[in-house]
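Postdoc handover notes: sequence design on the structure in folder B. Input tokens:
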């Protein structure tokens, strides 16, 4: 209120004018706010250790998780943008792919290792041959507690993205397995 109506307030710094109260905002600057002020940033050796902790040789879920983590690390996209990425949002050429622009986002070229990891996950999971434009790339399992995926598209729920909670759980597991302080890695 005071900053929007300076004419009602005195500019006198110690005492207000007889008919106007003192404006407490005179000379006060707004503090800078940063969303990443308290963020824990992985150093390159820690990022490599996190990726090495993902066992892509024996698990289809780990292939998905590796593709997601690698793409996050190499592109700097937000987890929500990447989690909610649908097949129709990719522009695919024979040797590369890029994420098409969305409102408030610019187009983003997928680095070759990230694109290769995404393709490996989609092909190994059996989803690549039947993926539809509205399918989410990083889909959750139909029933993660019943059985592990077998390489059939029916194992996955392509009509919904992974939740933030699911991502946080697997990220903390991999961080712990990599010897990182999992409480700091988000």
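Designed sequence:
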């Amino acid at each position: 209120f005071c900053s929007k109506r300076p004419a009602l307030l005195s500019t006198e710094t110690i005492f207000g004018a007889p008919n106007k109260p003192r404006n407490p905002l005179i000379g006060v600057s707004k503090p800078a706010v940063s969303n990443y002020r308290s963020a824990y940033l992985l150093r390159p050796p820690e990022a490599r250790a996190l990726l090495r902790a993902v066992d892509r040789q024996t698990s289809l879920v780990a292939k998905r998780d590796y593709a997601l983590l690698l793409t996050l690390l190499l592109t700097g996209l937000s987890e929500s943008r990447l989690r909610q990425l649908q097949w129709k949002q990719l522009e695919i050429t024979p040797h590369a792919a890029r994420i098409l622009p969305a409102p408030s986002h610019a187009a983003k070229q997928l680095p070759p290792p990230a694109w290769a990891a995404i393709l490996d996950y989609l092909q190994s999971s059996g989803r690549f041959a039947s993926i539809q434009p509205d399918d989410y790339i990083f889909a959750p399992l139909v029933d993660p507690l019943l059985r592990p995926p077998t390489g059939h598209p029916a194992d996955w729920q392509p009509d919904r993205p992974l939740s933030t909670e699911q991502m946080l759980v697997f990220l903390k597991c991999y961080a712990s397995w990599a010897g990182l302080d999992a409480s700091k890695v988000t």
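Context for whoever picks this up: DSSP finds five helices and three strands in the chain. Don't rerun without checking with the PI first.
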